[in-house]
Amino acid sequence: MKHEEFNWTGTDNMNVFARHWQPYTDVTGIICLVHGMGEHSGRYHHFADFFAKHGYAVLAFDHRGHGNSEGEKGHVDSYDTLLDQVDHLLEEAEKRHGDLPTFIYGHSMGGNVVINHAIRRKPLVNGVISTGPWLRLGFEPPKAKMMLGKFVKRIYPKFTEDSNLDAKQLSHDEAVVQAYIDDPLVHGKISTGFFFGVNEAGEWAIQHGHRLGIPMLLMHGGEDKITSPEASKEFAQQSEHKITLKIWKKLYHEIHNEPEQEKVFNYTLEWMKNLQ
Q1: pLDDT at 240
Q2: Are 255 and 248 a contacting pair, CB within 8 Å?
Q3: Among 61, 155, 211, 223, which has the minimal tally of Cβ within 10 Å of its Cβ?
């Protein structure tokens, strides 16, 4: 598998760091990958390796304020910036590989972004894959904290707190958990503006799922305590004719990092092949 790093200037004039993995043989399809909150594109090398062996190029970027991209950690000025970055990633994919079958893949916060992007921007792609999307959290935040957060957001949206994510809830694989904890590019920061922007977009998506016009594979770990599997089920009911829902009953949040990851990848691969 070949790997290159590249950059572009975002709509907010900040540098965006990106990666491009591709097979040594002919490329037969493209996956544009959108990572989750607090992490970065480098955590998906094994994902890219699997799909490269099956002929797919994978392109990914680090969100604003994440990984190697510029910006304040855990903050973005506008939710639209997240959607704009997906648009640019699709442009980069077409520039490098032309008019090949293309899929957008997003996890967690990235899963929220690709769902909203599919509904709002209506990209010309073969399909969208969303895993463990942050449509709602897997727990109920304290009401007092939510009320205070909404007040702070109005006066200072850049106010940043720790997300307090429990890394043990990511995967049953202890090596994955430890690697996440030790990763210098991973952070646990999130601003009030970023939190409410994504949280509100998740609720909007649930209410507007009937507008989805693109085939979607929606997967969630049944034991996910970080984001809500029930919210994924609710969203899927809005557009059953377009959405293939798969709940992996015993898996945690990062289904692509569980010991059963190869089953998840093969299921995804077969779904994509059926749309090409």
Answers
A1: 77
A2: yes
A3: 155
